[in-house]
Known about the structure:
The chain contains 14 helices and 12 strands. It is α/β, with parallel strands linked by helices and 348 residues long. The strands form 2 sheets. Strands 3-2-1-4-5-6 form a 6-stranded parallel beta sheet, with helices on both faces. The protein has a 6-stranded parallel beta sheet with strand order 9-8-7-10-11-12, with helices on both faces.
Amino acid sequence: MSDPIRRILIIKPSALGDVVHGLPVLHGLRVVHPAAHIAWMIRPAFADAIRGHRELDEVILFDRRRYGQAWRSPGAMRDLVRWLWGLAERRFDLVVDLQGLFRSGFFSLVSLARRRYGPAGAREFGWLFYNHRIGSNGQARHAVERNYRFAASLGFAHVPPRFELPISDESRRAAAELLAGAGVGAGGRFAALAPGASYGSKRWPAERFAALADHLADRHGIGSVLIGAPGERTVCEAVRSAARCGPADLSGATSVAVMIALLERAAVVVSNDSGPMHIAAALGRPLVAIFGPTDPARTGPWGRPDSVVRAVDDARHHFRHDDDSQVAAVTVERAVATLEEQLKTRGR
Length: 348
């Protein structure tokens, strides 16, 4: 790159796990452009995962729910036009689109950046908006590896992938208050259970999460705390009701920032294929990752194959939203075996 790169935009609006997978790109860009202004475009629901990051200068909120009403709401249309104008006024030199959709590709064009990088295989014809299209090397399977395809063209191939999540003192205090209310004092050990997921076919049965909570209480004297978004209260309540040990239910009570701070303290995290799983992996916590039809080689916890529990070790199985047979085939015994190994090798 002959022209100086002073202003950089990363486009990765969602989802939580995908945002975590984009963190190594932020780090690589910061290493090779230490003085640049780096911004990240993200949806408000996930902004706490990166807000306050020491390598990030600006968070640009993309309110998809509001702007998606622009076609039928004059007010929303005005807001969208102002937002697009503000994006153009920032005069970015470089845009890296990790989302790879028509919408994100269009935003890269609106930014007026001289260099617009995106995946050659971007969906919905998103590739039309890039002037630098990054193809697959044929070997990148995991989402982190697919993001790191940009590294060679952007000059940070020599930088090892690094995950760093910003955790403020305020978030740690809020997490400590919630845990104290749940009976977990300062320094107390607890397991964080995340029984929710975006699709039913990813959700391990509630009674098996309950059995694992009882095992932790009986064998190790470790209480459990249930976490999840407000929409996951029903499944968390099902786990709480089925467990003898009386786990605390904090579903819907934590922001993303507080959830990260809570996971930072957990003695072990048990999660389906969902955002909390990726956060726990990034934080280096002992982890039991329950997988059904999705392929952990593509969406599993990065660098943590030892934490994965799956009934079928065959990546040829394809994801179906309505097929929960594979996650239901994961036994409590297999999960317990992985749990014990994680506590032994990674517990502190």
